[in-house]
Write the structure tokens for this entry.
Amino acid sequence: DVKVTQSSRYLVKRTGEKVFLECVQDMDHENMFWYRQDPGLGLRLIYFSYDVKMKEKGDIPEGYSVSREKKERFSLILESASTNQTSMYLCASRSPQGSAFFGQGTRLTVV
Amino acid sequence: RKEVEQDPGPFNVPEGATVAFNCTYSNSASQSFFWYRQDCRKEPKLLMSVYSSGNEDGRFTAQLNRASQYISLLIRDSKLSDSATYLCVVIPNQAGTALIFGKGTTLSVSS
């Protein structure tokens, strides 16, 4: 069965901290994505990666960076967390046929 | 015009009703289309792909109208368990690009 796993369901971090969100998929997919979801704004793309060490900015990359050192792992980094980065973060992995599978989400609160 | 637009609803229907959602997209070259379902505080899950010829899965029917650039989802004989947010997803072109999400349509089915 398809599996995308995010390292944490809930996180509370302080303003200014460096935050790492990890995502692992077991489907050997080339494409992986990070979205954030906020009420009324829907899912917004932060970054995506179409291969190891390759990355593309999405719609809202400011304040974030990513790392893809291995095919199965895609990490999202908040360089210096701010309160406006409080959100639900969703990682996804995409099959060759196009449909995406999501991790369970990380609800991040920055205080 | 936004890339993918959906009526946010909510659509409030009684059990057994038939309900339909539409989703419009702006990029006429878009290649692939999907409907996802998202329950409250959970990750989106693939409901069904949308094929050019239309497709059906039990009580759910999805259709694509390329000329008018919209996709639709029809739910027949609504169940309480169908209450969720339904997300329209469009892939603009080939593999290696991100999925574009609509903001979702909320359905509430009552007894």
